[in-house]
Specification:
With about 110 residues, the protein is an alpha+beta fold. The protein has four helices and four strands, in the order ααβββαβα. The chain is about 55% helix and about 20% strand. Helix 1 runs antiparallel to helix 4 (about 100-110).
Length: about 110
């Protein structure tokens, strides 16, 4: 009986992690889809954008370049992270590419 409960709990937690990660990635991709139709961004220009993950009002937020306000908010609460990750988020975690940004967000959501 205890093993069944443990397995069920583990499955629910794994599902919650997948859903949270998907929501974080979707929020980033939704922001890209909302660009104006006439706006063309080359891949070279997109690669030059430096992203930064920081704690913003208790959640992980994505900042672009040197902006002081986030361009995207996630639903990943920083209180659920370990102490080392919370400390890194205080000073900011840089991602040089969008792929690296998405990878970091996926790691934090699981």
């Amino acid at each position: 009986m205890k093993n069944t409960f443990k397995k069920l709990t583990l499955c629910v937690l794994a599902l919650a992690a997948v859903i949270t990660g998907s929501a974080a990635v979707k929020s980033i991709s939704d922001a890209d889809e909302n660009n104006e139709p006439g706006q063309n961004v080359s891949l070279a220009a997109a690669d030059k954008t430096v992203y930064c993950l920081r704690d913003w009002q208790g959640y992980i937020a994505v900042f672009e370049g040197d902006k002081e306000t986030p361009t995207t908010m996630t639903d990943i609460p920083t209180e659920t992270l370990n102490k080392v990750d919370r400390e890194k988020l205080k000073s900011g975690i840089e991602a040089e590419t969008r792929e690296k940004l998405l990878s970091l967000l996926e790691d934090f959501s699981s």
